[in-house]
Amino acid sequence: MSGRGSSIARVKDNKGITAVETAFVLPLLLVIVLGGLELGMQSYMRALMDTAMEKAARDLTLPSAADPAIRDQINEKVTQLMKTTIPQATTSFSLTYVDRFSRVTNPSEDFIDTNGNRICDNGETFMDVNGNGYFDTDATASGWGKAEDVIRYSVTVSYPRLAPLPDALGLGDTVTLTSQKFLRIEPFSARPPVGTGSC
Ligand SMILES: [Ca+2]
Ligand SMILES: [Ca+2]
Questions:
Q1: Ligand 2 centroid distance, CA of 135 (Å)
Q2: How far apart are CA 97 and CA 151, in angstroms?
Q3: Which ligand is nearest to the Cα of residue 113, counting in written order?
Q4: How far, in Å, from the CA of 191 to the mean position of ligand 1?
Q5: How close is the Cα of 19 to the center of ligand 1, in Å?
Q6: Residue 145 has what pLDDT?
Q7: Window from 12-16, 48-52, 134-138 with minimum mean pLDDT
Q8: pLDDT above 60 (res 90)
Q9: pLDDT at residue number 110
Q10: Terminus-to-terminus CA distance in the chain, angstroms?
Q11: What's the rounded Cα separation, in Å, for the pair 192 and 171?
Q12: How many structural domains comprise the chain?
């Protein structure tokens, strides 16, 4: 092959290599850019959600929050704030309660473990915290609770993923964020006494 012919061949080879490199690099670059945008939006939505929940949790400490209609209004404010950024955003709220903060991490009702086996048995006495007549290893209850109870108020926010990231990344089409706040109901009324039972 002449020198000129060899140069032309090298140029063609280089173009081929460049085309192959572009075919590999472009999708990767696109994923990086879209992923960055997605993470930025998630970060913003999470900050927005936390701000909304902070305000909602403060409102829930007011006596008026004992009214379910008022709590619905508080939830709606959170929802509307999330929708200001992404109108398709949906929210789901949850309220549960226990009688004290330590029961958030250790939700079992207390009992007198006379035989030391860490199980409420053999007629051992338990404190029926949730008043259902039974010993519960998890005394967490749904709803608003009563005076001095500790409320766990949580929200799940979902919205369609903005960037069409490949399913191969396993990210799915929907972004789901959660936030929770703990607050104590003020003793606006007398706390009812806790009964006992026998396992
Ligand atoms: Ca026992
Ligand atoms: Ca019980």
A1: 4
A2: 4
A3: 1
A4: 29
A5: 73
A6: 84
A7: 12-16
A8: yes
A9: 95
A10: 96
A11: 48
A12: 1
Q: Is the dihedral of CA 65, 71, 77, 78 positive or negative?
A: positive
Ligand 1 centroid–CA 108 distance in Å is 13
Sheet holding 141-142, edge to edge: 141-142, 90-98, 150-160, 174-184
pLDDT in tens, 6-41: 666 666 666 666 776 777 788 788 778 878 888 899
> Cβ contacts of residue 49 below 8 Å, gap of 6+?
78, 82, 155, 157, 177, 179
pTM of the predicted model, to two decimals?
0.76
Nearest Cα to Cα of residue 96 among 27, 145, 49, 36: 145
Q: Give me the pLDDT at residue 9, please.
A: 63
Both structure tokens of 107: 């939700």
For the CA of 195, the nearest ligand: 2
If we measure between CA atoms, which residue out of 45, 33, 15 comes closest to residue 174?
A: 45
Question: Can you tell me which residue has the tokens 């006379």?
Answer: 114
Paired tokens of 181: 């706040």
Tokens 């998630």 belong to 42
Residue 117's region, left for phi above 0, alpha for psi from -120 to 50, else beta, is: alpha
- Domain encompassing residue 89: 2-198
Parallel, antiparallel, or unpaired: how do β-strands 141-142 and 90-98 relate? antiparallel
- Closest ligand to residue 111's CA: 1
pLDDT for the residue 37: 85
Q: Is 102 helix (H, G, I), strand (E, B) or coil?
A: helix
